[in-house]
Every structure is written in structure tokens, then in C-alpha cells.
Amino acid sequence: MIRERLFIYDTTLRDGQQTQGVQFSVSEKVQIARALDALGVDYIEGGWPGANPTDSDFFAQAPQTRATFTAFGMTKRAGRSAANDDVLAAVINAGTPAVCIVGKTHLGQVEGALGISAADNLDAIGSSIAHIRGLGREALFDAEHFFDGWKHDRAHALACLMAAREAGAAWIVLCDTNGGTLPDEIGRITAEVIAAGIPGRQLGIHCHDDTGNAVAGSLAAIAAGARQVQGTLNGLGERCGNANLTALIPTLLLKPPFAETLETGITPEALAGLTRVSRMLDDILNRVPLRSAPYVGASAFAHKAGLHASAILKDPSSYEHIPPETVGNTRLIPMSNQAGQSNLRARLAAAGIAIARDDPRLARILDTIKTREDQGYAYDGAQASFELVARAELGLLPRFFDVTRYRVTVERRRVGAEIKTLSEAVVVVQIDGHRSLSVSESLGEDGTDRGPVNALSKALGKDLGPYQSCIDDMKLVDFRVRITQGGTDAVTRVIIDSEDGQGRRWSTVGVSPNIVDASFEALLDAVNWKLLRDGATPVG
Amino acid sequence: MIRERLFIYDTTLRDGQQTQGVQFSVSEKVQIARALDALGVDYIEGGWPGANPTDSDFFAQAPQTRATFTAFGMTKRAGRSAANDDVLAAVINAGTPAVCIVGKTHLGQVEGALGISAADNLDAIGSSIAHIRGLGREALFDAEHFFDGWKHDRAHALACLMAAREAGAAWIVLCDTNGGTLPDEIGRITAEVIAAGIPGRQLGIHCHDDTGNAVAGSLAAIAAGARQVQGTLNGLGERCGNANLTALIPTLLLKPPFAETLETGITPEALAGLTRVSRMLDDILNRVPLRSAPYVGASAFAHKAGLHASAILKDPSSYEHIPPETVGNTRLIPMSNQAGQSNLRARLAAAGIAIARDDPRLARILDTIKTREDQGYAYDGAQASFELVARAELGLLPRFFDVTRYRVTVERRRVGAEIKTLSEAVVVVQIDGHRSLSVSESLGEDGTDRGPVNALSKALGKDLGPYQSCIDDMKLVDFRVRITQGGTDAVTRVIIDSEDGQGRRWSTVGVSPNIVDASFEALLDAVNWKLLRDGATPVG
Fold this sequence. Notes:
Chain A is an alpha/beta fold. Chain A has helices spanning 26-39, 53-61, 86-92, 107-114, 118-134, 146-152, 154-166, 183-195, 214-224, 245-254, 258-261, 268-271, 274-285, 306-314, 341-350, 361-374, 383-394, 452-460, 468-471, 515-533; strands spanning 4-5, 7-10, 43-47, 68-74, 98-104, 138-144, 171-175, 203-206, 228-231, 262-263, 402-415, 418-431, 434-441, 475-486, 489-499, 505-512. In chain A, strand 15 and strand 16 (505-512) form a beta hairpin. In chain A, helix 1 runs antiparallel to helix 13. Strand 11 of chain A pairs antiparallel with strand 11 (402-415) of chain B, so a sheet runs across the interface.
């Protein structure tokens, strides 16, 4: 059977930049474009040159890619020719091999919002596409508001697509601009468009997630015959976002009927890097990755229910629809007071601790976990602390060092007209009889105060004597605080995520009525886990 | 045309609790159950009594609801009768009007994971359902792994459903347990099940979001004839979560073909409270609400693109698939904002500040609020701080006192065998040229350390000179901390609730990378608001 080629068009750098709070720098765009190219997408839409100074700069510095670089713009405006439209000229001047222009296809909006006739709209589309083709570029047409337009006045909507096609557009992209069309209707209308004479091999689909159906809508159009799909990494985009390529790509590559009938430019090796690409984008945006994200989320293969955990050990496919490593993700069996002993054994096994099914220590560990959860600890988001608790119970936790005392000071004072805050931490560590004092301030790279936990973290990591080389590549990457119930009192729970130079990421938890001390406890666990994992030898 | 009734089954309290990091307390479950009942769902699945102490306690204290309270459990185990199965008994003993039990329908898993015969599995299902019915309860059957089971051995999967139906199950729920089935297949198999003799009015659908298609899969099953849909608020749930009712409900109520052919127990008035319910759940979980969530996210009706924003003013439907107020959400246009100004006037009026419709200061206040929200402040939950910001902009904020400086120290040290922490705060206040130093420790009534914010709060309230009588009846009653985004950096947002002897309760907010300073800012706002409300006269 010959598989048909499906083309993947990424618009993270253009439509993704419409996300509230997102503004990529040129160097960030370069980094993302390189990652997209390595992933194997076919088109990279880089931005709207002319509409945005960053986008123009980016095209001037765009990296060499195997993917087709595409500039985005809009059809020529009324009352001038395509060659004399300066907005269109700025797009074309970016020099990309492909140019995608958006035009209205909803007659009500053509006449209302644009205030031009149907004929003028068709001319704007046709002459803009022809102009791009005349310059030797590949032309794509984004049919804005297409599904609403088709329902409003099918003849005009279709005429718009035909005008683009006759002028030489390589692709006609059906856009559900306001995101309100449901998958069944997207599939049906796409089939009707193909029946009306636009071949599927020239049809693209562009969905938004306003009803939570952007992925399903894209799949419906592909099932109906569309052979280009547009979307963004992690579903970035205006309002609720665009179709999420991070969810679509694995479905298209791994699931029937798509996997059997279509082929893309993405190899299994590249797919195994998908989780990393998704996290890289969050890292650039300084966002906490969505744990529940399909395929790539940290919880996507996490099994909390005790029943599930025991079934997973017998047959992973029971609760895992794909093997997590296919997309570069990993299985996680977290602890919680819902978990049974099988959960516990699986989690211990993952930490390299083998323990027999009927070992009485299993019940002891569960009791300890339960008691600590009643005090406010939460272990299903803090695997590393869980492992330390279990090891302590099993007598498998070496004592690397002691913190004799610490003192953290937070000060705020007026300095001239300004109010300044500064934190300072002193930590006293004892290792094999040797005492060392370390002091750190809480200044970030920009010289501003980052608070007491920052100071404490730095002081704790400053002088661990024989262990120093193990922890030098460690950094605190996320910090979550929650006021919760510990017994009858409110306490503070702090969860800290740490990373090291080997790409490990681990989470630890601390609980106390004192937020600084809760943080300290989580920091201490983070350091101890790292020493354990690196196989550090306890001194003394 | 007669609309068919569609039943909405919420499992936030059961399957939603499988979310990594989620562990509801009994009082949180009560609060969520009340909100679900007010929303108008038909079933509230409250948990698994017996499997989890919290769930058992919750059922003992469950509120009176119009919705049918449902306890979850599993079919009787092999080798004993339904009446003698203690796990099933614990579920039934919760005394709910309905009981939902899960059973395997995938023959491979029946023989593999359970290690029992097909006949024994059918007996477990039938006798468990019959036992529940015999006690006069409504019985529901969750057909676990149904879609995979149907593909593996259709005869056994169907026999399981028939066994449940013949034993008197009111509902048979098709579960896509590992979340791997795509919407088209869910729709097709649901139709096949109906054709095989299970009527749609007894069929439910339970989807998971592992491919990002849980909403679409649920819609496909409903389109095929299923008349019960299961899901959770905000799509909580194991791994990638369950079908998101917060997205499904508005689609079912507002969109063709569902809105025209089905009716639910949810009124338009209740639907207009959906955004509030969604935010309440995030508040309980101390999660940052997902801005891009369909329908209820803060960005769901935010229009960033300049082109979109101007089109919106001419025709909202161009970029809004539904009117945002339908679901209790609001449009956000980051430039001119008419709706923003009328909201603002209403909030000012609530604080006793009358201001004319066309007062140019309204725009200035909105700008200030917007700028501060970009820095991480949140004024929705901090009306007192909002009032202070508006008053400052209007020149209506007296200056009661200045804090010249403060210093907070947190120490931890060994005292004998014990580890002790202690916090101390020094605050220097200046009132009309008079300087006063106050110092406090952080000891609770039981002599334990309550942390740096406690010490700071006490020191700040210790000597405010002429204002002291106003603040003596003030106390800090709640304290919430969240790590959030301020510009490009993570910052700490602290919200403090205070109360006074007159029964007033007010909320203030502070933001800083330094958690102690964020708390200080919120404390300062709390004191200033109290002085303002008590009509204190500024000295000097």
C-alpha cells in the first residue's frame, strides 16, 4: 500500500506568538526554528515581516533549514495593485521560499468588515497569489473564517478557494478562525470542498481550540482528505490556542487509521525527541510545563491509583495507550495515600530498590508515608523525597552531612528615594567532624533580591567539602508553595524541582508552619537525593 | 421537536482525585459537591468509600443535593459472593442512592490480569449489580477498557454489558480507560453497541485525554446515541485527565447539533456561573488557572492581534464563537476597553467611591491595574488592595504612617537533641516625625514557631501610636501563597485575609520575588485599609 504524504506546517513562531504574554526574541525564534527543523516539520511559518520589528529581524537572521521557511501576510488591500501594496511587499521582501497570505472568505465579513464587493475580494486573493508566484515563490492561501463563510454563502467561499488555486496557490488552507466549528462539521465541509473540486493534496486545515476540539477537528479534516495540517508546539496561540502539534504528531504517526495510510517527514527517532522539544519551548517561555499534556506531560504516564499500578506491572498497555519512550516520555508511579503496596514496590523498583512482595517493611513505609501526609506532606509530586523516606525506613540512607544551624535575614530599608530588600543566609554544615560556615546573598543575575530561599539555597550549596563536585551542576528550577492542613493547624508545604547537568529533574517536599524552614527541608532533600544518585561516598 | 435528556455525571471527586498532586480534604469535597449541585449536574461521584479514609469520612458528611450522590467501587472479587465481599460492602455502606461499580470487559485482561474465566467475570458483574439492586439502590456499571476489549473480543465485551443490563443496571458506561481510542472509533463502536441491543438511553461514555481528544470522543459517543456523559471539572483526572466538563457543558448547551436535540439539567443561569466554578476549583487546589482553557480561561476571549481587536468592535462573532458572558467569562482587549470601565465603576461604587462615566481617571486606573496585573498582582481576590490602588490614583488615599525599615530573621539550630526554629521581626515605623521600633517573635500560643510572616505581622501591629486602638481588634485569618508570573520572572504572590472585631473580613495582595516582602506588602495594605475604613485621621 502506498502511503500518501501529509505535510506538517508549524506556526508556533507566528500564530503561537499571539498567545497572551508571549513575545519571542530573535534568538529564541532561531532556537525554536532549529528544534522544529530537527523534528522534521515541512513548513516553518516564521512571522509577519513588516507587522512586527522582531519578525523582520528574524527573517534577516533565519537559520538554514530543511523545512520550507514561510513568511505570513495578508492579501493586497483594495484600491492598489498587488505589486504596489507596501504591506505585501514587506512580506515578500523577507525572501522566504514560501509566502502564506490570509484573506477573507466569509461574504458577510467581506462586505461588512472590509466594505468591498465579492468581486474585489476575489481579485485581491487571485492577484496577490499570482504576484507571489510571479516572483518564483511558493504561495499558500489561508482562507480566514472559512467554515463560517461556507455556511453563510457557500458560493463565495468556494470562489475564494478557486481564485487562489487558479492563480497558482500550492496550498489552500481552511481556517476555523474563531475556533467554534466542531469536528464532525469540519470533516463534512472538508469533504464537500474536495467534492467541489479542490483536491485534498492541496488542502490544509488550521484549527483553534476554543471548544477543546482543535486536535479532533484537524484529524477530522485529514480523515476527509486534507493533506496539510497547521498547528503549534504545545498548542500556543491566540485565545485558547491553535491545534497542538505536540498532541497531533504522535497520533498521526502511531495511531490507526493515520499511521497506516499516511507518511510525514518525522522519523521515529525525531518523535522520541518530542518531549524534549516541548519542554524546551516551556523553558524559553519560562512556563511551568503542563503536567497533564497529552503524550509529553510529566503526568501523561503517571499511575496514581493502586489498582492501575499493579495492572501496569503485568501489562503496560492496560493503562498506557502507547509506550512512553516512543515520544521520549517516562512512566511514573507516584505515591499517595490511595496507593497500595504494589504501587510502593513498583516505585521502589524504579529507584533501584528491590523488595519482596511480602516484606513487612512495605507496610511500615506505607504507614510512615501516611503519617507524613497527614502532617501536610505530599509525595506524589515529590518522588525524590519519597525515595529518601523509604530508604530511611529500610536503613539504606547514608548520612552525608549535618546542618548544625542556619540563619536567614530579610531586610527592607530606604536607600535614598528607593526601597530595597536584601536577604542573607548563613548555613553551618558539619561533615566528619569538620565544621564549615557559608554565607550567601539573594541577588539574581540582574542584581535584584530573589528572596530568602534563594539565599538559603546558595549558602547550602556553597561548601559541601568532599561532595562539592556532585552538587555544582545542580540548580533549583521550580518552587511551589501551598498553605495546607497539617493535623489541625495550617502549615506551609513547599515543593522544589531541581535539575542537574545530566538532564535529571527531581522533586522534593518540605512542610513547616515556617515557610523558610519548609523550603530548607525541601532543599536538603534535593541535595541528599543528588548525592545518593551520583553515588557519593559518605565521609566519616 | 422533543429533546432527549442527556445526563451529566461528574467524577471530579473520584477520578479527579487521581490527578497527580491532588488530595481533597473532606471540607473541600463538600464545597465542590455544593458547587456541582448548584451547576445542575445529574450525578456526583463522591469517591471510593473504604479505599481511602477521606472518602469514607466524606460520605458520612456529604451535603444534601438535588444531584444523585454516587459511591464508586469495583465488582465483587472471585471466590466469594457479592454479599460477602467486604470491599463491595464498604462501598454500599456509604448509603448513597446510586452505586457505580467498575468491571473488566477486555477478555485478555480478564484472563491475564484477573486470572479468571470469562464466565466468572460475567458472574462477578451480574451478581454485583444484582446485589446493589437488591438493596434498592440505583446501579451503574463502568465497563473498563471497553473499546480495547471490543476490538479484542467483541462477544465477551458485549456479554459483559448484557450481564450488567440484565441484572438491572440503570446505566452501562463505556470507558476508554487508557485514553487511546480516537473519536471516530468511539462514535462507530458506540453505534455498534446500540445496534447490538443496549439502548442509548442506558449508555454512558467515559473518556480520557491521552491524545487530547477526550472532549471530541465524548461528543462522538453522544452523537451516536449515548445519553450519559462522564467527566470532571477543569479536566482533572489520572494521567492527562478525564473529559473536561467545563469544555463539554457549554458545547452541549450552545452548539448544534447538541443544543437543538438534547436537554440537560443545567440552566442558562447556571451556565453563566461556569467560569466561577472553574476558578473556585483552582483556588481550592492552589493552581494557577489555565489561561487558555476553552470557554472559561482568562485568555479564552482575549484579543491580542490588532486586526482582531478592531474587528471585534464591529462584529464580536468574527473572533468569538460564543458571547463570553454566556459562560460567565469576559472579553479582554489589551487597549481601549469599554466593558472594563463600567466594571471598574461598579467596583468603585462598591467601595463607596462615586465617579462619573466619562471621567478620564477611569482609564488611568485601568492602566495601573493592568500594569500591576502584568507584574503578578491579582485584584479579583483582593478587593481591599484594589480599593487602595484606585484611591491612590484618585488622590483619595491618606498617608497614615511610613515603615522606614524592617528586618526579619529565621534561625534553626539544635537545642540538645531537638531541632528548633525561631523567627524574629524588627519593624521601624515613622508617624509625624516620631520613630518607633517594635520587635516580635513568631511564637504561637503553644510556644511553637509560626514563621517569619507571623513575627512581621505582630511587630507591625505592635506600636502604631495614635492608630493603635483602630488595629487592636485586627487579626490575620488566612494566608495564601502562589508562585506566579511577573513579567518574565517567577514571583511570589501573597494574599492575606484579615478580620476585625466588627466582623469585617478583607483581602489584600502583595507581590515580590521575596516571599517575606510580598507578605509584608499585603500586611501593610491590610492595616491601611482598616485605618481607612475606621475613619482614622492622618497625623501630621
